[in-house]
């Protein structure tokens, strides 16, 4: 007897569109860093799906296709050399404490993929920050390798880490195309922008949120850069590096953990963009977008309530 997919998985057209938008980035991760990227994603997806199934079966509910998106996004935020056991612990923690403890799909406050990423980042800093892989530059690239050459942070790190340590910036062309060291899915600005266009065209993600994050980032980054802050890079460099675009397109726009009101999306996005610059420039973390989005998730319900209260107040005044 075969498995009935319709009964096992909850049908979610929106999630399938997100999966489609992620496929080119997944292929690029294999090209740049090797077949290990694909194996890591399969491993994470199996563990994440089984974790959700374990909790949902008690209530006789199907697995959400959203958990597949969570697993894909989480994997794409990891360095290519992340140990399988670390990645596995992270996705199990993310699904349980980022989703199931709140009641499952549609009830979570925080983005589960970011909960998983934050957990492994804080608890396993060495494999998450000290070892990276050189990107392949010639065809067939990583499709003929298990993993491209591994380097430590002292010899070649991500663009943001290099900037924080030495003030040097990477070629803008390499940043745009993805030919730099970094997490599996965050290096190519070109592919991320193409995915953003697809998601906006298919109405699968909020363009207001994306625009607001970039607006908040560019406003804060440009202001501090022009004031001469040595720890804040040129706004264009920061825009193309450090996972900012990936987080903006795929994480900040999560419909469950972000505001529902249009006005709330603008406030939420600007908050994330500005907070990212502050964390990047003045905290211990080179990225910042991960923590900024989780902070935004915290305030998302309050932002919606404030917007609704303001609208109701305006109606009473106008009446």
Automatic annotation (TrEMBL):
Coiled coil: none annotated. Keywords: Flavoprotein, FMN, Membrane, Phosphoprotein, Translocase, Transmembrane, Transmembrane helix, Transport, Ubiquinone. The chain crosses the membrane at residues 14-32, 84-102, 176-200, 212-230, 236-254, 289-307. The keyword NAD does not apply. GO terms for cellular component: plasma membrane. It comes from the Bacteria. InterPro entries: NqrB/RnfD (IPR004338), RnfD_bac (IPR011303). The keyword Repeat does not apply. GO terms for biological process: electron transport chain; transmembrane transport. PANTHER family: ELECTRON TRANSPORT COMPLEX PROTEIN RNFD, NA(+)-TRANSLOCATING NADH-QUINONE REDUCTASE SUBUNIT B. This is Na+-transporting NADH:ubiquinone oxidoreductase subunit B.
């Amino acid at each position: 007897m075969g498995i009935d997919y319709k009964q096992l998985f909850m049908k979610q057209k929106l999630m399938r569109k997100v999966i489609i938008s992620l496929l080119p980035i997944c292929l690029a991760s294999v090209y740049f860093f090797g077949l290990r990227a694909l194996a890591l994603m399969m491993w994470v997806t199996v563990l994440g799906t089984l974790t959700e199934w374990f909790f949902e079966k008690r209530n006789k509910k199907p697995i959400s296709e959203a958990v597949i998106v969570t697993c894909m996004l989480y994997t794409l935020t990891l360095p290519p050399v992340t140990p399988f056991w670390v990645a596995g612990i992270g996705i199990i923690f993310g699904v349980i404490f980022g989703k199931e403890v709140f009641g499952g799909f549609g009830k979570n406050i925080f983005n589960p993929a970011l909960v998983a990423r934050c957990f492994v980042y804080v608890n396993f800093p060495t494999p998450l920050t000290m070892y990276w892989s050189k990107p392949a530059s010639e065809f067939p690239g990583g499709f003929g390798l298990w993993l491209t050459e591994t380097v430590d942070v002292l010899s070649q790190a991500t663009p943001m880490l290099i900037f924080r340590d030495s003030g040097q910036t990477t070629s803008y062309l390499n940043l745009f195309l993805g030919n730099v060291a970094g997490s599996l899915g965050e290096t190519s600005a070109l592919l991320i922008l193409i995915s953003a266009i697809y998601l906006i065209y298919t109405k699968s993600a909020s363009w207001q949120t994306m625009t607001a994050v970039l607006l908040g980032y560019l406003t804060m980054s440009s202001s501090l850069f022009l004031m001469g802050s040595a720890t804040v890079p040129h706004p264009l460099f920061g825009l193309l590096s450090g996972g900012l675009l990936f987080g903006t397109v795929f994480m900040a726009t999560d419909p469950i953990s972000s505001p529902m009101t249009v006005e709330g999306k603008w406030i939420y996005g600007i908050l994330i963009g500005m907070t990212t610059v502050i964390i990047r420039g003045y905290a211990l973390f080179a990225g910042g977008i991960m923590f900024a989005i989780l902070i935004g998730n915290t305030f998302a319900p309050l932002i919606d309530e404030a917007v609704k209260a303001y609208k109701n107040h305006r109606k009473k005044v106008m009446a």
